[in-house]
Amino acid sequence: MAKTTAKAVKTTNAVKTNAPLSNGKEGSSSEGLVAVLEKRFRQHPERHPGVAWEDVVRKLKPKLLKTLDAMEASGGEPDVVLLCEDELAFVDCSAESPTGRRSLCFDRAAWEKRKEARPSGNALDLVKEWGAELLDEADYRALQSYGAFDTKTSSWIVTPPAIRSKGGALFGDRRYDHVFVYHNGAESYYAARGFRVKVRIE
Asked: What is the CA radius of gyration of the chain?
C-alpha cells in the first residue's frame, strides 16, 4: 500500500470559511445560495444525468439549505451528484479538498489523543455539526468517476470500525490518473488534507 509523504502541520489553524451567502436576512441568504447551486448544477450536467433542476429546487428545505451553506462557505462547492445505487445527493465537488476544512485530525478521540500540537478540531465533529455524512470509499470512487478530484490534496473518508479501533483512519486521493485509498494514524493532520461530505436529496 502506498505511503503519503505529506508533512504534518505543526501549528493549529482555525477552520476557515468564505464569506457566508447572507446579508443578515434569511430570505436573501437562501436566494443567493440557491442561485450559486443552480449555476453549478447547469454547468456540470454530467454529474447528474437525467435530473432536472426544477425537481431538485423543490426539495431545498431550510434544514438542507443550512447544511449546504456550511459546505459552500468552507469551500466545498456542493453540486448534485448521482452516486452508487441511484442515490442522489449534494456532494463537495471542489477540485481539491475543501480549503476551509484542512489540517484536521479524523475524529474527537484522535484529537484528544494528541497531547501536543493539537489542530483546531476534527473532521467528524464538523460533519455532525453540519448534519451531513462523510463520504465512504464507494461514494468517493463514484465522485471520482465524474472528474479528477484531489490531484494535489487528499480527503478523509469513512473508516471501518476494525481499522479505527486500532488507531487508523482512511483517506483518498487521485494520483497518476488513478484513485487510491490509504491509511494514516487518525490523530494525524495535514495542510493538504480535508474531507468531503454529502447530504442526501430526499
From this structure: 17
Render pLDDT for 55-89 as a digit per residue (tens, 0 to 9): 999 999 999 999 999 999 999 999 999 999 899 99
Q: Is residue 34 part of a domain?
A: yes
Query: Which is nearest to 93 in space by CA: 135, 121, 49, 136?
Result: 135
**Residues 6 or more apart whose Cβ sits within 8 Å of residue 103:** 9, 12, 13, 119, 120, 189, 190, 191, 193
Domain count, the chain: 1
Query: What range defines the domain where residue 117 resides?
Result: 26-200
- Residue listed under C-alpha cell 470500525: 161
Rounded CA gap, 16 and 59, in Å? 28
- What is the pTM for the complete model shown? 0.86
Helix (H, G, I), strand (E, B) or coil at 3: coil
Whether residue 96 is contained in a domain is answered as yes
